[in-house]
Write a structure and sequence with these properties.
Radius of gyration of chain B: 12 Å
Number of helices of chain A: 26
Number of domains of chain A: 3
CATH architecture of the largest domain in chain A: Alpha-Beta Barrel
Strand content of chain A: 5-15%
Largest sheet of chain B: 4 strands, antiparallel
Number of strands of chain A: 17
Low-confidence stretches of chain B: none
Largest sheet of chain A: 9 strands, mixed
CATH topology of the largest domain in chain A: TIM Barrel
Order of helices and strands of chain B: EHEEHEH
Number of helices of chain B: 3
Shape of chain A: globular
Helix content of chain B: 25-40%
CATH topology of chain B: Histidine-containing Protein, Chain: A
Structural class of chain A: alpha/beta
CATH architecture of chain B: 2-Layer Sandwich
Helix content of chain A: 40-55%
Radius of gyration of chain A: 27 Å
CATH class of chain B: Alpha Beta
Oligomer: heterodimer
Number of strands of chain B: 4
CATH superfamily of the largest domain in chain A: Phosphoenolpyruvate-binding domains
Distance between the termini of chain A: 45 Å
CATH class of the largest domain in chain A: Alpha Beta
Shape of chain B: globular
């Protein structure tokens, strides 16, 4: 093995899920690698002792879990039942009796017998159809792991016993790990797996410490107390940094902190270009819990509220009351700022329904979103009733996804009219003039925009899907994923055409894909006439700040220049130069690299089958 | 003493870890032994893992059999647990 001091620096690239730069020592949390011995016990007299040793380890484990439970901080108390079920697993006959029997029958040591029992349980669980239940094997593994550590005399890796400030390096972090955490001593997290919405990212965000996930095999490369640099902005991690690395990142760290405090101070102020044009910056949101972040980051409302979560959460359809409560709260908290609620954007395969769904070969082109909702009008109507009822609690707008032509708008509006009639009959109040818009994300809707504009109050351009459908690329297909090009001249022309059509028709228009939060795209989007953008809440302060250094006049000229370029590569290069010139600090701090990151994350979400 | 009764799972997640845990917890308070049976397969009702392996989504019918001196009280409380959907509202 190479000695730490002479090991060469090594740079890795992951996904930055919580911003900030830190330099510190690694603390490896590795639960999956207890070294155990496999032994036959020839002497029968010793078998009794081996059983005793096993039972002793069970008792110690029980105490440890009980202690853990009693020490659980209040904010995670809701997870206490996980530890209760761990205690039950620990006492379960399938685990304990089976292990004792193996020790005596097969004359093997406790560790080996326990491993064998685990293997048996794993086999049984594998055959369970229900994914939720079969995944409980993780709990069994977690418990077995603790017992094995107690048998082998290896210490439990207690996160709470960390004595100095460290960077936690783990395969993944579970809510149970979090309960053990002495948060004051953790500088940041880096993990092998995970995505932007993983628990690690959410936790790091809440704690305001940097985190990088999806580093693949970081736990194999890092040893305890190795020196690390973690850049949560760019997703870079440096192992064994040399002096010049440290100086470089310390510099970035200082700049980052300075810059963050500047943009945070101005995040709540309206975004106005250098020549006085007000731009509305809204947030995309998925969970009710994100509302706080939207307000903290200075969002002028919600431009896209994805409503799929409540439908994915359980095996039954959510009730109108559930939906209403959720929408009402968001509307109320953000009032008087607008909240644009998008109706269900799922495929039938993900929704419990009366409709028999056959497996689709190409779900992106299949029965989903508005198509699915029109096939199942009762599901849509329930959601529309909830949205209508919430509309008196704030400024609520309604938006239909994946519209490909006028027929769908007419049918959806017919169901909306039915929902309104029902509420009228039931004497339930709602906003009769609720604004109704559509997502523009299917190329046919771009072509038909002029007609569609007569029937709706606003357009919202969903660039993620529009790029996929317009450039005919399956982003799950790694061979063509490189073609996912926001800077493709066809995409820019489509956006421009939709924006000018909307303006001519006198209806609202905004853009809500990943492009909206990308500093590289910003000058073009302003240049082609957009005045409303909706993005990931975290990008808001940065984008607002960047807007203040742009003049619309210059942005228009920029866009005209770009229209003369004919390849995505040329346009991207031009964009990079412009962004560096307009906001040199962005380039220096690595914010412009985030551009690549975002689309990477997007792909990952797609892969995970998320909307 | 033996008590036998059939139940239908009504909570939306089915008989998952938390619900199964409540059954085991209840059983710990009694001397009688509980067995749960689904599709001809009977398992030990004091083992959370065994209950999970029955794999009971919402709508499943299972049979509870309790053997022992306090089986009557046990069955009564067990019925309540099922009726209240394990305290999960729905």
């Amino acid at each position: 093995m190479t000695d730490n001091h002479i090991a060469a620096p090594k740079q890795l690239q992951g996904i930055g899920v919580s911003p900030g730069i830190i330099i510190g020592k690694a603390h490896l949390v590795d639960r999956s690698r207890v070294k155990i011995k496999y032994q036959y016990i020839i002497d029968d007299k010793k078998l009794g002792k081996e059983v005793e040793r096993f039972k002793e380890a069970l008792l110690i484990t029980e105490e440890q879990i009980a202690t853990l439970k009693s020490k659980m901080p209040d904010h995670v108390k809701e997870h206490a039942f996980i530890l209760d079920s761990h205690l039950m697993i620990l006492k379960d006959t399938m685990l304990t009796d089976a292990t004792v029997q193996k020790i005596t029958d097969e004359k093997i040591n406790a560790e080996w017998a326990l491993k064998k029992s685990l293997q048996e349980i794993r086999q049984i669980f594998k055959q369970i159809d229900d994914e939720y239940i079969s995944s409980r094997i993780n709990d069994v593994e977690n418990v077995v792991e603790r017992v094995l550590r107690n048998l082998s005399g290896e210490e439990q890796p207690h996160l709470s016993e960390i004595r100095e400030r460290v960077i936690i390096v783990a395969h993944d972090l579970s809510p149970a790990d979090t309960t053990e955490l002495n948060i004051g001593r953790v500088m940041g997290f880096i993990t092998d797996v995970g995505g932007r919405t993983s628990h690690t990212g959410i936790l790091a965000h809440a704690l305001q410490i940097p985190a990088v996930v999806a580093l693949e095999s970081i736990t194999d490369m890092v040893k305890d107390r190795d020196l690390l640099i973690v850049d949560g902005n760019t997703g870079e991690v440096v192992i064994h940094p040399d002096d010049s690395d440290i100086i470089h990142y310390q510099d970035r760290q200082l700049q980052h902190e300075e810059y963050q405090s500047i943009i945070a101070k101005t995040g709540h102020l309206p975004a106005t270009t250098a020549d006085g044009h007000r731009i509305f910056i809204q947030a995309n949101m998925e969970f009710l819990e994100e509302v706080a972040a939207v307000k903290d980051h200075g969002g002028d409302g919600i431009g896209l509220y994805r409503t799929e979560f409540l439908y994915l959460r359980s095996k039954e359809l959510p009730s109108e009351e559930d939906l209403f409560e959720d929408y009402r709260q968001v509307a109320e908290i953000l009032a008087p700022n607008p909240v644009t609620i998008r109706s269900l954007d799922l495929g039938g395969d993900k929704v419990p329904s009366t409709l028999e769904m056959s497996k689709e070969i190409n779900p992106a082109l299949g029965l989903r979103a508005i198509r699915f909702c029109l096939k199942e009008p009762e599901i849509l109507k329930t959601q529309l009733r909830a949205i209508l009822r919430a509309s008196i609690y704030g400024q609520v707008h309604l938006m239909f996804p994946m519209v490909s032509g006028l027929q769908e708008i007419l049918e959806a509006k017919e169901i909306l009219a039915q929902a309104k009639d029902e509420l009228d009959l039931e004497k339930i109040d709602y906003n009769h003039d609720i604004k109704v818009g559509i997502m523009i994300e299917v190329p046919s809707a771009v072509i038909m925009a002029e007609i569609l504009a007569r029937y709706v109050d606003f357009f919202s351009i969903g660039t993620n899907d529009l790029i996929q459908y317009a450039l005919a690329i399956d982003r799950d297909n790694e061979h063509v994923a490189y073609l996912f090009q926001p800077f493709h001249p066809a995409i820019l022309r489509m956006i421009q055409s939709v924006v000018s059509t909307a303006k001519n028709a006198g209806i609202g228009v905004s853009l809500c894909g990943e492009m909206a939060g990308d500093p590289l795209c910003l000058p073009f989007l302003l240049g082609l006439g957009l005045e409303e953008l909706s993005m990931n809440a975290r990008a808001i302060p940065l984008i607002k700040n960047f807007i203040r250094s742009i003049t619309i006049e210059e942005a228009r000229a920029d866009f005209e220049n770009v229209m003369k370029l004919n390849t995505a590569r040329d346009i991207r290069a031009y964009a990079l130069e412009q962004a560096k010139r307009l906001a040199p600090e962005l380039g220096e701090k690595g914010y412009l690299q985030n551009h690549v990151q975002e689309s990477h994350t997007q792909m990952e979400r797609k892969k995970a089958g998320r909307p | 003493m033996e008590q036998v009764k059939k139940f239908r799972i009504q909570n939306e997640l089915g008989l998952h870890a938390r619900a199964a845990g409540k059954i085991v917890e209840l059983g710990n308070q009694y001397n009688s032994k509980l067995f749960l049976k689904k599709d001809g397969l009977e398992v030990d009702g004091s083992s959370i893992l065994s209950i999970l392996t029955l794999s009971c989504p919402i709508g499943t019918e299972i049979q509870a059999r309790i053997e022992g001196v306090d089986s009557e009280d046990f069955m009564e409380e067990l019925s309540e647990l099922f009726e209240q959907r394990f305290g999960e509202g729905k």
